[in-house]
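Structure tokens please, single chain.
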Amino acid sequence: MTTTDNTADLLAREIEARRDDLIALTQDLIRIPTLNPPGENYLLICEYLENRLKRQGFSVEMIRAHGTPGDSDKYPRWNMVARYEGKYPGECVHFNSHTDVVDVGQGWTFDPFGAELHDGKIYGRGACDMKGGLAASIIAAEAFIAVCPDFAGSIEISGTADEESGGFGGVAYLAEKGFFTPQRVQHVIIPEPLQKDRICLGHRGVWWAEIETHGEIAHGSMPFLGDCAVRHMGAVVNEMEETLFPALAEKRTDMPVVPVGARQSTMNINSIHGGQAEQPADFTGLPSPCVPDSCKMIVDRRFLIEEDINDVQREITDVLDKVAGKRENFRYDIREMHRVLPTMTEKSAPVVETVSRAISDVMGKEAEYVVSPGTYDQKHIDRIGKLKNCIAYGPGILELAHKPDEYIGVDDMVESARVMAQSLAELLPRPD
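Here you go.
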């Protein structure tokens, strides 16, 4: 069932009438500094959302993810799930947004938490990723309820923790508690900033591992009496440069990953630490002369839906075994830290087809289908919740995420809210 022209016009006018509210809501959310790490002000932003949505008739649950990574009395992992029941039974559409934002970093010309409106753009950390999307989904839901009060089904809106650090204290925890089962929720839209005319079907896979090379400590003036673990790690990096990185560049995918450079397999060397630990900033002395007996490297491997996770791991161990065959006394350990399999929702899925039609109606152009180079919380909805009918769709320019002077365009939020509201009208129609 498609949305009637009359309903679409009413929704458009209702959302336009709420433009100032959309701006104010986005500004309020940005001005709550929910920095992760360590996970600040999660309760504050959930209480703000709770108060807002209760006034609109939503029932609200506040859920703390006890025992998840990072959860503590000082930095509790709070989540908020709001639900609005329609007049008739039907399916549930869930809008999920993460509330955490990354570190501010250097290079800002705007106050990172000032939420300044300038030339039709709201600036601040999290404006694009993804408080603008959260605000747009709230306005869309409220406008839809006002225009179509007799709808069938239910609407859920969640604000969840820790997406920027894996989502284990947020969507993963909620999925384990049954919030994303196909029996409870039938359609999920995650308003990540993939641009207002794009539908993100999923993401590449990720495998993180820590590699440690071992040596033997000795006096730095007599390194021949020891064994330098850093030099061993240097040989590992050299082997990766010569064999692994060229091989990864040859692997290509049919997934429509953006940007285009991510349509190949990639690996980032996230960090290398060897020898003595760094001293505190107020320490003014010199290091002691020691041969390092340990060196650790963390690798971040992003892989394609065409690849098998076992082959991904084997490529790394093959590098290490090649080095072992060339270097005397080479010893290593490898520890898996994190894995996420690739996921991609079918274009024929109901939520995909519905949002695609809404984009065409609102913007007069065909939707572009993309896949994210990195993971986001769809991985937990798919893997734990077993819910496949899930996409990312929201306002904002992907390349602005985590950058200085991050912003969200007001017009983009308005148009995305129209798409979301029109999608609700199609997915939750009033019975004939």
